[in-house]
Amino acid sequence: xxxxxxxxxATLQVLRDPAGIPSHPAVFQVLMVLTWVFxxxxxxxxxxxxxxxxxxxxxRQEPQWERxxxxxxxxxxxxxxxxxxxxxxxxxFTQVIYDPQWYASNILSASWAIGFxxxxxxxxxxxxxxYFKNHQGAKPAIIVWGIVGLAxxxxxxxxxxxxxxxxxxxxxxxxxxxxxxxxxxSGSTIHAWQxxxxxxxxxxxxxxxGVFLKAYAHYYKVxxxxxADYRNFVNLLGSKIAIVGLVxxxxxxxxxxxxxxxxxxxxxxxxxxIIMVFLAAFAxxxxxQADQHHQTSYKPLFYAAIxxxxxxxxxxxxxxxxxxxxxxxxxxxxxxEDLPSTALFFLTFVGVGGLVGGFFLTAIYKAGRTQGVxxxxxxxxxxxxxxxxxxxxxxxxxFLVGIWVWLKNAL
Length: 411
Ligand code: HEM
Known about the structure:
Elements: H1 5-15, H2 25-58, H3 63-97, H4 99-108, H5 110-133, H6 143-166, H7 173-177, H8 195-219, H9 228-259, H10 270-289, H11 299-323, H12 339-368, H13 378-410
The chain binds protoporphyrin IX containing FE.
Protoporphyrin IX containing FE binds next to helix 2, helix 3, helix 6 and helix 8.
């Protein structure tokens, strides 16, 4: 079949879920963009801290590097679990409004999409071995576990990138599915990727780990076992790394813009300029403050979160533009308004997410800043009780709604 924008548009329409979606598409779009910000920040912290811990490991004769290597190994271990959990939300939202694109891309590279899970398990297991073995006086050979772990994480990032990118190119799907008319059902090929875009996310990991180090130095300020020397070393290192990262981000961002199809007019997009100005201003700010290694704060980490939000919006804006020639507009997705499920979703988000998430974050934050055993204060203990309470209410509502729907249909 000859493909033209007209019948690609028709194909995309029929690939949509005929059951429609339960709320206005913009709701899913906003949630997708927002939740992805958290995913990518933890991707960046994981890749950055894993790289830094391996580098620190090679310099572990110096006590500060040894300590940092051990600390970053732990940070990477936690961040990988966070990025996985926080990847689920945008994945679900993408699948709701961009289901034709996401599923087609995944099926066309199915072996990679499935292999992603196994390589992630392999990488994470390998990283855990490195984590268990990376302590004072560790044997040099254990670095192999860390290298395998990091290599798998980067590979998984690449697979994620290819799946996201292939989803934007529906005019090529037929050629990938049946090259020269011969159907290829193996799903064993990565069909398309964009170096500038992928490397931009890798460069962003350098920036984010830099500002993460600065926040780390600030966080441990209150602990006596984190001497000023070590904290200053980490803070200064963080500034240097973040500055390098921001410069690389600027270069790779321009590369990304240059690789965009002409009709997207990458350089005419105001968001492109907002991002470039932001990156440059952020770098200049850090350069200006670079010699103040005694001064620590969470501000740079906060700026990095804003940067991630801008990138997330840009990513979505160009996806909308990529889809324009095919008349694909999420706003005309069939809506089957389902108020109870939407209400339940938001109540869960605010109630369970707020109280349980809030409790964990508060307790972990405070516990980490305490030397020795952490004793919860009264407000934190109250927050814990409320978190347990809201979970009980949530489970009760979950079953009651299920039983109610079941009885309503059965009787
Ligand atoms: C080490 C593991 C992972 C790495 C390094 C990673 C990295 C990335 C990167 C770099 C992107 C942006 C790609 C682009 O726009 O070109 C991305 C997007 C994404 N990732 Fe991950 N990721 C990982 C694991 C996961 C997991 C486990 C999930 C889900 C449970 C997930 C869900 C997503 C989603 C939904 C997107 C956006 C897709 C879209 O907008 O269409 N990621 N990831």
